[in-house]
Amino acid sequence: MSQTKREILNKALACFMSKGVEHTTIADIRKASGISVGSIYHHFGNKDGIVVALFLTGMQDHAMQQENALAQCGSAEEGVKTIVRCYIDWICEHPDWARFVFRYRSFVENSSLGEQNDTHKRAHFKRLKSWFTPHIDSGAIQRLPFEVYHSLIIGPAQDFALRWLAGKTRGELGDYRELYAEAAWLAIKT
Amino acid sequence: MSQTKREILNKALACFMSKGVEHTTIADIRKASGISVGSIYHHFGNKDGIVVALFLTGMQDHAMQQENALAQCGSAEEGVKTIVRCYIDWICEHPDWARFVFRYRSFVENSSLGEQNDTHKRAHFKRLKSWFTPHIDSGAIQRLPFEVYHSLIIGPAQDFALRWLAGKTRGELGDYRELYAEAAWLAIKT
DNA sequence: GCAAATATAGAATACAATTCTAGAACATAA
DNA sequence: TTATGTTCTAGAATTGTATTCTATATTTGC
């Protein structure tokens, strides 16, 4: 990716996080980045294009970290707990990205550019599935419809994270890392 | 609430759900409802005002159903499971409202009109807390930081519901009603 | 029946996304 | 090296849409 594109994305993220997507204008991004309106449109097509590009960057970064961590895990228990820990760690380390991703997820999913996201997501899920299958077959994990595992493992941490990112919790997300890791394992172990 | 306001909200919801908030214009709502631009602004101040009003209507409807159902429950187990069932039932019965609420939650929370929502939410949580406290004191439910209960109880169902509403699941949300009710109880019982 | 407040209407305004036109930088091949 | 096409940058012009404004109607309280 070119230097220019990166610069646009960086400054756009800063604008989006401080004023919200709907209240930042292309002129704001032009001012912040010093890059002309024409150039911005050349690279991203329209404002939604910038949002989607930022979203995909964030999601892919997290997916990669998660898959790398999972590859190190031998047991089902370690794997499941690792997914939760990795999720929480990513949010704690990149709170701005996380806020962005949560806030504009449905925007991206409902946008015409959202198919790219679907494609990546499906590929990611497929890889997760192939990690899980042996542990289900071995009896370490309950056999459930595949589509519910994600919700049982990530759901609780995700709900709390959303409130934590909004500054609406007393405790720190990081302090509940093990609580949510344990809860995930309890929910799906046999 | 006046007939006019209701009519605006109804037609606005239809527009928002079919084109998304960002792509429906005030002119669209005027055409759909037959009510003039001036009148729309008189009642809601601006476009965000319509979004927030719709959001609050949806949330309050669900909160009320939940509290009514909870009031009927004697045991901790029934109470916790009722919360989950009630949540899933509401989504299945009002999928459009649910889509709207999920999609624009962070929009409302980050808007200047979002304080109204906070106020209602706090009051609702307070009432939930007073229902729960005796069951924690009696030892039926694990003693945990209060702020994590919500995530453990609702988190999984919420995550799945979001995908179901987007048409991205094989199974029906309603078919997993008991699965998520059981999971919630398992997560917080002693 | 008369103010005052509230509600409706649609035209006028202002602001912001997007498109357009022109030219600069860059690559590639003769 | 020059010719030629492609990608990139620039900012002005256009277009679409939220919001405001002014005027008129309707309802409410006295």
Describe, in plain words, how this protein is organized in 3D.
The structure is a homodimer of 190-residue chains. Chain A has 190 residues and is mostly helical. Helix content of chain A is 78%, strand content 0%. Chain A is built from nine helices and no strands. In chain A, helix 8 runs antiparallel to helix 9 (177-188). The radius of gyration of chain A is 19 Å and the shape is elongated. The mean pLDDT of chain A is 94. The A-B interface holds A 20, 22, 102-103, 106-107, 109-110, 144-145, 147-148, 150-152, 154-160, 163, 166, 169-171, 176, 179-180, 183, 186-187 and B 20, 22, 102-103, 106-107, 109-110, 144-145, 147-148, 150-152, 154-160, 163, 166, 169-171, 176, 179-180, 183, 186-187. Chain A binds a DNA duplex (30 and 30 nucleotides) through residues 2, 4, 25-27, 35-39, 41-43, 46-47.
Tell me the layout of helices and strands.
Two copies of one chain form a homodimer.
Chain A: H1 3-19, H2 26-33, H3 37-44, H4 47-71, H5 76-93, H6 95-110, H7 114-137, H8 146-165, H9 177-188
Helix pairs in contact in A: 1-2, 1-4, 4-5, 4-6, 4-7, 5-6, 5-8, 5-9, 8-9
The first copy, chain A, binds a DNA duplex (30 and 30 nucleotides) through helix 3.
